[in-house]
């Protein structure tokens, strides 16, 4: 057995021990449902590590994420449903089946063609027979922007698409104008409706521009936090509470931080 195999087997055994009669009381209490939040949390922490560029942190976070996967597999093993070996074999077979251009005789000319063939192969697999809409199967628990992006892609792939980016930008202006009108009315329900329309249109702008809207918003939020931190630093340096800074002072620090990037 390879060193990687030995390490993986040791982790599987540790997980089983934690769940055993003489194991950890907390681990023994967990269920698939109770662990959902931890699976999501560890996924986002791994994404944070990727965004930070810290490979040591990413290494550790991938280990934490792997533990969550093994935890769910151990729960299923105890109930005789499946174990981690079955999960590994499932993804192995899937990769072989969906990459005939690598493991078979098929030829592809581009990454776009790979994705097209992937979708074709996927649509013929078990579990797709009951799907009525091309929008079926998109997880409802995806972050809203990510789910909107996937829905937009699928609809566009079926031909429900603007003729060009200019048309999408025009739609963006239209939705912004409609939102402005509703804000004036003060109707919170209508305002929320128009904000949704505007956000979905922005997702389509991102799709046309080949930008991931989740990544774009996450990066912008990171910039905001960094720039706002500079304002807080300026307040501390002046010996005043943040709330005593004028908006003009805050703007001046903000604009300097923008120039410094």
3D structure, described in words:
This protein has 261 residues and is mainly α. It has 3 domains: 3-89, Orthogonal Bundle (Helix Hairpins); 139-211, Helix Hairpins (Orthogonal Bundle), CATH 1.10.287; 215-260. It is 75% helix and 0% strand. It is built from 12 helices and no strands. Helix 3 runs antiparallel to helix 4, helix 8 (144-157) crosses helix 10 (188-208) and helix 9 packs antiparallel against helix 10. It is extended, with a radius of gyration of 25 Å. The N and C termini lie far apart (50 Å). The model has no long low-confidence stretch (mean pLDDT 93).
Feature tags:
75% helix, mainly alpha, single chain, Helix Hairpins, 3 domains, 12 helices, 0% strand, extended
The total count of strands amounts to 0
**Full CATH superfamily name of the largest domain:** MazG-like
Supply Rg: 25 Å
Query: Any idea what the CATH architecture of the largest domain is?
Result: Orthogonal Bundle
Please tell me the total number of domains: 3
Strand content: under 5%
User: How confident overall, as mean pLDDT?
Assistant: 93
| Global structural class | mainly alpha
**CATH level 3 topology of the largest domain:** Helix Hairpins
Shape: extended
Number of alpha- plus pi-helical segments: 12
What characterizes the major β-sheet? none
Order of helices and strands: HHHHHHHHHHHH
Low-confidence runs: none
Return the CATH class of the largest domain.
Mainly Alpha
Q: What percent of residues adopt helix (DSSP H or I)?
A: over 70%
Distance between the termini: 50 Å
């Amino acid at each position: 057995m390879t060193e990687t195999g030995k390490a993986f087997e040791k982790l599987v055994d540790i997980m089983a021990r934690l769940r055993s009669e003489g194991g950890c009381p907390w681990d023994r209490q967990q269920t698939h449902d109770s662990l959902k939040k931890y699976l999501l949390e560890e996924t986002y922490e791994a994404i944070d590590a990727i965004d930070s560029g810290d490979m040591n942190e990413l290494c550790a976070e991938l280990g934490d994420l792997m533990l969550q996967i093994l935890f769910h597999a151990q729960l299923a093993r105890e109930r005789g449903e499946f174990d981690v070996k079955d999960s590994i074999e499932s993804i192995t077979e899937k990769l072989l089946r969906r990459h005939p251009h690598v493991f078979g005789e098929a030829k592809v000319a581009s990454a776009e063609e790979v994705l097209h063939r992937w979708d074709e192969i996927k649509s013929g697999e078990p579990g797709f027979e009951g799907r009525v809409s091309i929008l079926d199967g998109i997880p409802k628990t995806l972050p809203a922007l990510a789910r909107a992006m996937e829905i937009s892609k699928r609809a566009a792939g079926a031909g429900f698409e603007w003729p060009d980016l200019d048309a999408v930008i025009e739609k963006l202006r239209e939705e912004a104008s409609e939102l402005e009108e509703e804000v004036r009315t003060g109707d919170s329900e209508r305002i929320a409706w128009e904000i949704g329309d505007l956000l979905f249109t922005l997702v389509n702008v991102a799709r046309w521009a080949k930008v991931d809207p989740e990544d774009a918003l996450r990066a912008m939020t990171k910039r905001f936090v960094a720039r706002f931190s500079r304002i807080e630093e300026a307040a501390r340096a002046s010996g005043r509470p943040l709330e005593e800074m004028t908006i003009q002072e805050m703007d001046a620090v903000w604009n300097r931080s923008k120039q410094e990037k």
